[in-house]
Write a structure and sequence with these properties.
Helix content: 40-55%
Number of strands: 9
Low-confidence stretches: none
Distance between the termini: 40 Å
Order of helices and strands: HHHHHHEEEEEEEHEEHHHH
Radius of gyration: 20 Å
Strand content: 5-15%
Mean pLDDT: 94
Shape: globular
């Protein structure tokens, strides 16, 4: 049976992460950094990844990690989504980590990398565009790979090549920052041509490992989208209770009540879908790919809708740079195409259940 409920351990983890982010990465802190070209809050990654141990949740204890599961990692991402936090958690602690876990973990280079990731000392990024869907066959390309998320924070790149997967130190790569829509998740073009790197796996093993990493990333991205949507609704309800017009709270007007009630229903459904995806990944369910595709096709739309409503129902202040609503909207729009668009996931659903597309 799929378990959609949060355990006491998960609730404690949520409280710890939320307290850390409230103290070190609140909205005003982020607003003051996002245009500086250095959105990452100094010391925050060490506190979250190393001191709290969040980076090693997916890594078994024998490899230096916490030996937890995707369920706990999903809780961390919910909180990171609520705060729109600029940290390389999804890219390093989920996608790159899961990719490495699908390789031979007895291999020296793989085990060493996993130990570094689990401890928070190392940030690894898969050298593929953020938009790459789980069912995409990674095609090695010469020249720069554009749209690589968190590349500027990486210590190591996992680079797919024609003969397998390689670990390339960031010092041997050329990283050129790009201008993203979401300033809290930096993108860059990464060139690793000419860098020998350390071989980690052959081509066939690498392809399967990358698919696993991307699938886990897409499944847990839904939890980030859920957290973001929840914050948008809570902030909107708070604002409409406090904002008065015609001598009454604007939230008491029926039209606004209906909009927020509809959004609440969508978020309840999104929570069930996100928890189902995390549980399917944690238990190794044979339906994991289908569950993730269904979840992403739904949750990405809910996050965008919640962020749009947040901006609109805040009225004039919602359109200003000083209010964090725009951070949520830009993250939601960016996440909408991250690790596959909703349409791409709908195509995956059709393929997985044997539902052919209509004839042209």
């Amino acid at each position: 049976m799929t378990d959609l409920l949060y355990s006491e351990t998960e609730d404690d983890l949520r409280a710890a992460v939320r307290a850390l982010l409230a103290d070190r990465a609140d909205a005003q802190t982020l607003l003051g950094r996002i245009e500086t070209g250095a959105p990452y809050v100094p010391g925050l990654w060490k506190s979250l990844a190393a001191d709290m141990g969040a980076a090693g949740l997916l890594v078994p204890e024998k490899l230096g990690g916490q030996g937890a599961s995707h369920r706990e990692a999903a809780v961390v991402l919910e909180e990171l989504g609520r705060a729109v936090t600029p940290v390389p958690y999804l890219t390093s602690a989920v996608v790159a980590t899961e990719t490495l876990l699908a390789l031979d973990t007895e291999s020296g280079p793989v085990a060493e990398l996993l130990a570094g990731l689990a401890s928070g000392r190392t940030v690894a990024v898969l050298a593929l565009p953020l938009s790459t869907a789980p069912d995409t066959e990674p095609v090695p390309t010469a020249g720069p790979v554009t749209g690589v998320a968190d590349a500027v924070a990486a210590d190591v790149f996992l680079v797919p090549r024609a003969d397998g997967l390689y670990a390339v130190p960031a010092a041997d790569a050329v990283v050129v920052p790009q201008t993203p829509l979401d300033l809290t998740r930096p993108l860059a073009a990464v060139t690793t041509d000419g860098a020998p790197g350390t071989p980690l796996a052959d081509a066939e093993t690498a392809a399967a490992a990358i698919r696993r990493g991307l699938l886990s990333g897409a499944g847990l991205l839904a939890s980030e989208q859920l957290g973001l949507a929840e914050w948008c609704l809570e902030e909107t309800v708070r604002h409409t209770r406090e904002r008065y017009q015609f001598n009454r709270p604007v939230g008491s007007f029926q039209a606004l009540k209906h909009r927020m009630a509809q959004l609440w229903l969508e978020i309840v459904n999104a929570r069930a879908a996100a928890r189902a995806a995390a549980d399917a990944l944690a238990t190794g369910s044979p339906e994991a790919a289908l569950t993730v595709a269904v979840t992403q096709a739904y949750c990405s739309k809910v996050a965008v809708h919640a962020a749009e409503e947040c901006v609109q129902l805040h009225g004039g202040i919602g359109m200003t740079w000083e209010h964090p609503a725009h951070l949520a909207l830009k993250r939601a729009k960016s996440d909408q195409i991250a690790l596959g668009s909703a349409g791409r996931h709908q195509d995956a659903i059709a393929a997985l259940v044997g539902l052919p597309a209509p004839a042209p």
